[in-house]
Amino acid sequence: MISIAQQRNRPLAATFAFLGNASWLVKVSAFLVMALAVLAVFGPWIMPFDPGEVDLTNRLLAPGAAHWLGTDHLGRDILSRLIAGTRVSLGAVAISLVAIMTVGILVGGTAGFLGGRADQLIMRVTDIFMTFPTLVLSLFMIGMLGTGLVNVIVAIALSHWAWYARIVRSIVMSLRHRDYILASRLAGAGRVHIFTEHLLPATLSQLLVLATLDIGHIMLHVAGLSFLGLGVMPPTPEWGVMINDARQFIWTQPLLMLWPGLALFLSVMAFNVMGDAVRDRLDPHLSAEHVH
Amino acid sequence: MKLLRFTLKRLLFLIPMLFVASIAIFLMLRLGPSDPAMDYLRLSRVPPTPQALENARQMLGLDLPITVQYFTWLGNALHFDFGVSYALQRPVLPDILHYLPATLQLAGVALLLTLAVSIPLGIWAARHRDGLPDQFVRLVAFLGVSMPNFWLGFLLVWLLSIELGWLPPMGRGSASQMIMPALAIAFMSLSINARLLRASMLEVSGQRHVYYARLRGLGAGKVERSHILRNALLPIVTATGMHIGELIGGTLVIESIFGWPGVGRYAVSAIFNRDYPVIQCFTLMMVLVFVLCNLIVDIVYAWLDPRIRLGVEEKA
Hints:
The complex is a heterodimer of chains A (292) and B (316).
Chain A (H helix, E strand, L loop, with lengths): L3 H6 L1 H11 L2 H23 L31 H37 L1 H16 L2 H12 L3 H27 L3 H8 L4 H37 L11 H8 L8 H28 L1 H5 L4
Chain B lengths: L1 H30 L4 H8 L6 H11 L5 H13 L13 H36 L4 H13 L4 H15 L12 H30 L2 H8 L4 H35 L8 H11 L2 H29 L1 H4 L2 H4 L1
Helix pairs in contact in B: 1-12, 2-3, 5-6, 5-8, 5-10, 6-8, 7-8, 8-10, 9-10, 10-11, 10-12
C-alpha cells in the first residue's frame, strides 16, 4: 500500500493505483473520459470531414463506408460533427466549473471570513439561489444577458455557485479559530495570505469532489439550453443543437437523433461514474452515509 | 391546530419573500447589458432612430428614476397588470395564465408518476437487498441520472409511436398522450428517489426501534409498514421537494417535443427575444409556484414527523 503522503507526491502513481483497484465500470468510464478529452483536444486532426462542410448532393445518407454515421439534412458528416461537439461540450463545462468555483470561493470565503451581519446577508442571498431549480434560474439569466454560448456559461455559473459558496463558508468557519490560523495571524500574516495559504487548500478537495459530481449535470444543462435554441447557435456543431436539428426527421431518419443523444448520454454517464469514484476516494464520509 | 398555525405562519412569510423576489427580478433585468427601449423597437420592427428611441423610453417610463419605475410596475402588478408583451403586443398575464395550467398539469402527472413508481421500486429493492430486484433498480438509477430528458422523449416517440404505434406522438387531450412526456420528465427523479428510499429503508431497518418491534413479535408486514416505511419516507419528502423544481424545469423543455401547449414555448421565445414584461411575469410566476410547492412539502413533512407537528423543535 502507498501511504497518503507518498500519493500526494506521486499523483500519477496514485491515479494508477486507484484505477487498478477500481471496478470494471470505473475503468470503462475512465477510458471514456480520456477518449473524450483526446477528442476535444485533437478532434480537428481526427475527424474525417470538415464538420461545417455542406454537401447538398449527399443529404441524409445512411451510415456507410465514407460517412460512418451518415450525413445530416445539409449533407454534413455526423461523426465529424459529434467529434467537434466534444470540444464545445467539454470546453463549456470546464469554463463553467472554473467560473462557478471562483465565484463560490470568493463569496463563501468572504462570508466565512467576515462572519456576523455580512455573513448573514450573504447566506440569505445564497439561500435564495439554492431555492430555485437551476434550469429556471439560468433561463432567467439568459433572458437578462441574451442567448449564445458565452452567456450560457455565465448563466450556469450564476445559477450554480451557491452550493460551492456554502461549502467554502462552512469550512472557513470551522477552521478560522484553529490555533494554527491564530499563530499565523500572530506572526503577522494578512487575511489574504491566511486565506490562500491555509484555508483554501482545505476547501479544494471537497470543491473538486462537488465539481466532478456536477460535470454530468452541467453537460446536460448546456445541451438542454442549446436544444431549446437558447445556447449554442445552429451552425456550430453541438450535441443539443444536433438533436434539435434532427427532430424534424424523426419519422424518416431516427438514427439522426440517436447519435448525438448517445454521445451525450455516454459522456454524462462516464463523468457521473468518475464523480462517484472520486467522491468515494477523497471524501469517504460522504459515501459512508449510504447503506451499501 | 399546531399544523394550521404552522401553515398560516409560513403563508404570511411568503409576502416579504415575494416582495424581495420581485425587486431582485426587476433590478437584474434592468441592470442587464441591453436596453429595453432598443429591444422594444426591435420587437415592434420600428427602425431605431434617436427620435423613436426617445419616444419608446418615454412610453415605457424608462426615463424615470428606477425606484419610480419599480413601484409603478409593482402597483400595476398588484392589480394583476404585468404589462404588454413587446413582441406580441398583448397583455402578458392572461397569456401566461392561459398556458401555465397545461405545464402544471404535466409536471403534476410527472410528480405522481415519480412517486407511484419510485416508492414500490425502492421497497422492492430494499426487501431483496443485493438480489435481482436490487440490481435492477441500481441499473435503472444508473441510467436515469445520466439520461438527457429531451433525448429520452425522442427515444420514446421513436419506439412507442413510430415503431410500435402504441401511443400518439403528440398533443394534449387524452390520458394516453400524457404517458410519454410524463415518463421522459419523471425518469431521472424516479430513479434517484427509488435508490434513496432503498437506502433509507435499509438504514431505518437497522435501528433499535425496529429490532424491538420484531422482538415484540410483530409480523414482518406490520414492522415494514408502520416502523420502517413511515420513517424511511421522510427523506423522500425532502427529496421530492427538490425534484418538483427539476420536474417543472423538465416540463418546460419536454413540452416542445410532444407539442404540449404549455408555458414553455411561450417563455422560451420571450427569453430568446428578451421580451422583458414576459420574462418578469414568467419568472415571478415560477417563483410563486416553487414557493408554494415548498410550502406544501414542508406541511407534509410536519404532518409526517411528530417532532415538528407537536412543536418539539420550537422549544429545543
